[in-house]
Amino acid sequence: MEYYRISGTPIFDDTGTFAGYYGVTTIETKTIAALKRAQKAEDFLRSAVNSISAGFAIYCEDGLLVTCNEPYRQIYSNVSDLLVPGTSLETITRAAFARRQYVDCEGSEDSWLEDRSNRYNKAPGSIEQQLADGRFILVTERRMPNGCIASLHIDITAQKHAEAAQRAAALEAQDANQAKSEFLASMSHELRTPLNAIIGFSELMRDGLFGPLGDERYQAYAEDIHLSGRHLLSIINDILDFAKIDSGRQQLVEKVVDLSAIVAESIGALLLQAEQEQVGLSSDSPPAPGFLLADETKIRQILMNLISNAIKFTPAGGRITVSQCIDPEGRLALKVTDTGVGMTAKEIPIALEPFRQLDGRLNRKYSGTGLGLPLTKRLVELHGGDLTIDSTPGQGTTVSAVFPANRTIAKWATVNR
Question: pTM (2 decimals)?
Fold first, then answer.
């Protein structure tokens, strides 16, 4: 199909009689086609803008509204009558002030508008707006190649409410956790005082410090009381230590620690217990690869906990080995390896949770509070280290306490100080 544009002028003779037309005919096919393409592109753009579920608007370089969609009008319903092409952003914003569209700028409208204009003209980005009806809107603006500003307006009210609820829940949990830690610390302290008396007096009776008890069965009873008291005191001490760490009150008393000496002392202290369980216990470490800047008491507690735990879960005839090494990154690792019952990959996280037992039955085979590994993990983390577990059911477990490189001190440097 061809399109033509015809223009002409009527011609009259000397007597005024119409003689015809003098005109020009121009082919307009390409021009009409171009106009149709432009109209089609404009319709497509308008359809795309209206299909956006979020509010969308375009303002030209001098701040005049070019177009916006229906969600944009719904968000700013107080000024929807002004949201027509050609209205300036300043006019719309001042009307929004007057009609109380915003709640975060009352009393400072001019400075708010100036800041808004600066952000619009210099560095479009993202801001949050709170509307008078309680909604929160995330506004993201981007400058287009032609200088216009395209802005996307997303209602994030549900998200903000969820974040507020999450913060409130976190604070509530923190308060509850703090109360729990304080309760445990208080109760542990109250229990330790009478327990120390029980342990002390039972030791006096067991050893017959003031003379024999009489019936020999009393001697056995005194020994049972003494051992039970020490066991209960050990549990309470673990609870107290865990409560202190959990509440952030546990502090490190740091000095240069000789790990070889601590390994030897810990093995010596637990060797009798291992022999009673018919479990081998030894160290296969070479001379100490290095010293550690750490809290000596807590390092000893870490190692004693790991060895005791290994003895508990290693059947008769098994073996426990304590070793130490420095990895390529300079981190010093204490490792306790056993040939015990082992754990599955799913069981390892449970073993590291406070007050959890892999066997939850009341008549479970292995006794304890479930604080051994969690407490040890916290003590290692208190030094900035990591506790890792590599375990296979039926084959055994290796627990590694890995300390950061900045705590490892070369042996020669310590000796030469």
Answer: 0.50
